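=== RUN LOG ===
request id: a7f3
mode: sequence -> structure
chains: 1
length: 174
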Amino acid sequence: TRFVPSPNANRRPDPEDVSLVVLHGISLPPGEFGTGAVEALFTNNLDTGSDPRLADLEGVAVSAHLFIDRLGRTTQFVPFDVRAWHAGVSAWRGREGCNDFAIGIELEGEDHRPYTRAQYRRLDKVLKALLDRYPRLSRAAIVGHQEVAPGRKTDPGPAFDWAEMLPVLFETGA
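=== RESULT ===
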């Protein structure tokens, strides 16, 4: 995993309280892959003037813990014990502010185009490692962004095949 530090992070209230994984889908500009714009966004280097579809991202400060591109390559922007700014206004099971206790994983994609097998394979490995590392994390707490920000977010969208996650989500042991 390549590490590219994002300035868009800060201390978690409790670094050991990782009890949620939020899966996201992102492509920048929308519908385009492999442009480098996601990394630029997470490092505050996005040229929002380069494409009119990026204009609404001017001044936005966001990040994720991990980004998995279409080839399954992983870039880490924020250490897992630090709060990344990925979920925004959010709540899960009565707890608000999911960034405090969640790990954010961005998959290069969009709501209506299938994600790749390479992404699912890498995500499977990442999720298994996180489940082994964080005792408060469970398979039932691996959710899409739309579940913690309903009505505001739709990702990873209907193109995300949750059945591909069945091995990690329903395997015995955790």
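=== NOTES ===
The chain has four helices and ten strands.
The CA atoms of residues 11 and 82 lie 5 Å apart.
=== END ===
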